[in-house]
């Protein structure tokens, strides 16, 4: 690729690299029913392993994302891609139960912390003044999740789960090679260095327009990753209630396809938000997704084709506001603190990503262990109730940059 890369080519390159780097993202939740049986995990144990991936992310992202205001973002990006690949490879070779899985998934989350938002910073620095590229990059996250589900399900079915993790380790290496070949060698002229120390986020925390989006993102992630972490287990449960056992349907393939709808939903959602207003659009999307959450768990005994339709509609609603939330926070970032703003956005936002999968697992255990429709219904309804906080938190920054 020509190093005088066009904005479109840069955007496509960073999106492809992000997708490749996320090859191991969904491997554990995609194969969750098997791990619960093989390792004797409780739903709460599984929730901890799913959640600690995001705990690793939010623990590392304040440093790694803020660092991109001070050093070239590509250095952070390359190092953490290597960590992502190593975490998947070591899981394939060494994971034997709860504690080893917990540690290695935490390391994988740290790898994501140094690639997702730093990758967006890398793209934004090279495309200064553009903002339409942002939802394309953020929605590539959904494609990465979808392909990770497919890779895990197909490889584990043909070989075993260790091969699924081992092959997913190749993705980050390919991402580094792609970026090395495609990205201009010379980094863009840096912004003025921040006046505060590395982890001093006060300028961002005082920016109400940015923080309104950050709080909304937290609720968005709580719901999104609760659904993504447990959707395969839910579909397997629902298949077990069908007279024919849900013959002809593949739960991991459905989960992958649902994740794929996130890209058009996010891109189209951002275009709609540009026209009607970000705050209004995000508020309506969150209210609609809360309604779906209140229904979907109790629908587990419905005809399976109808469950699949409902899951697709729910997945579309959840992801429709993703791009516009992130675009909003970047546009509202204080001058010279774009990386720090992304750090706060990711750190606080991914607290929701950690809490959602864990809270869902705890809710299942408290309501009967996920052995009944009522248990799944109550757990999803609980997620929907939390989502109703999103519009209230978003209003924190209304009128000053939304």
Compact overview of the structure:
The protein contains 20 helices and no strands.
What does this structure look like?
This protein has helices at residues 7-21, 27-30, 32-39, 43-67, 73-94, 98-113, 116-126, 133-158, 161-168, 170-182, 202-205, 208-240, 251-260, 262-276, 278-296, 304-319, 322-331, 338-366, 373-387, 389-394. The chain has 402 residues and is mostly helical. Helix 5 packs antiparallel against helix 9, helix 5 (73-94) runs antiparallel to helix 10 (170-182) and helix 15 (278-296) runs antiparallel to helix 16 (304-319).
- Helical fraction equals over 70%
CATH superfamily: MFS general substrate transporter like domains
Mean pLDDT: 84
Q: Quick one: overall form?
A: globular
Order of SSEs: HHHHHHHHHHHHHHHHHHHH
Oligomer: single chain
User: Which consecutive residue ranges, at least 5 long each, have pLDDT under 50?
Assistant: none
Identify the CATH architecture: Up-down Bundle
Q: Label the structural class.
A: mainly alpha
| Rg from Cα | 20 Å
Q: What is the number of helices?
A: 20
Compute the number of structural domains: 1
Quote the CATH topology. Answer: Growth Hormone, Chain: A
Distance between the termini: 37 Å
State the name of the first-level CATH class.
Mainly Alpha
Describe the structure using short key phrases.
single chain, 402 residues, 20 helices, Growth Hormone, Chain: A, mainly alpha
């Amino acid at each position: 690729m020509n190093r005088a890369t066009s904005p479109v080519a840069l955007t496509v390159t960073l999106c492809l690299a992000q997708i490749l780097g996320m090859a191991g993202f969904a491997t554990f939740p995609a194969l969750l029913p098997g791990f619960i049986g093989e390792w004797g995990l409780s739903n709460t144990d599984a929730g901890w392993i799913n959640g600690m991936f995001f705990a690793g992310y939010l623990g590392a992202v304040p440093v790694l994302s803020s660092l991109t205001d001070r050093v070239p973002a590509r250095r952070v990006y390359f190092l953490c891609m290597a960590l992502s690949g190593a975490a998947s490879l070591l899981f394939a070779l060494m994971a034997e139960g709860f504690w080893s899985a917990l540690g290695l998934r935490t390391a994988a989350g740290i790898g994501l912390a140094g690639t997702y938002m730093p990758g967006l910073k890398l793209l934004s620095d090279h495309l200064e003044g553009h903002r339409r590229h942002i939802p394309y990059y953020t929605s590539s996250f959904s494609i990465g999740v979808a392909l990770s589900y497919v890779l895990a399900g197909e490889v584990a079915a043909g070989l075993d789960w260790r091969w699924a993790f081992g092959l997913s380790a190749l993705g980050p290496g390919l991402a580094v090679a792609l970026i090395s070949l495609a990205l201009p060698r010379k980094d863009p002229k840096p912004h003025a260095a921040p006046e505060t120390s590395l982890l001093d986020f006060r300028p961002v925390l005082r920016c109400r327009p940015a923080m309104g989006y950050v709080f909304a993102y937290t609720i968005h992630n709580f719901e999104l990753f609760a659904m993504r972490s447990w959707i395969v287990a839910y579909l397997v449960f629902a298949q077990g209630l069908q007279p024919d056992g849900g013959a002809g349907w593949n739960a991991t393939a459905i989960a992958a396809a649902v994740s794929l709808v996130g890209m058009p939903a996010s891109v189209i959602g951002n275009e709609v938000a540009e026209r009607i207003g970000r705050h209004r659009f995000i508020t309506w999307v969150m209210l609609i997704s809360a309604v779906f959450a209140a229904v979907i768990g109790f629908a587990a005994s419905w005809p399976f084709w109808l469950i699949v339709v409902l899951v697709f509609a729910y997945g579309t609603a959840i992801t429709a506001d993703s791009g516009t939330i992130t675009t909003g926070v970047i546009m509202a970032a204080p001058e010279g603190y774009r990386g720090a703003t992304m750090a706060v956005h990711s750190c606080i936002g991914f607290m929701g990503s950690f809490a959602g999968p864990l809270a869902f697992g705890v809710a299942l255990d408290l309501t009967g262990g996920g052995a009944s429709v009522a248990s799944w219904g109550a757990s999803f309804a609980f997620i929907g109730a939390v989502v109703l906080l999103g519009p209230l938190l978003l209003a924190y920054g209304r009128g000053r940059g939304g």
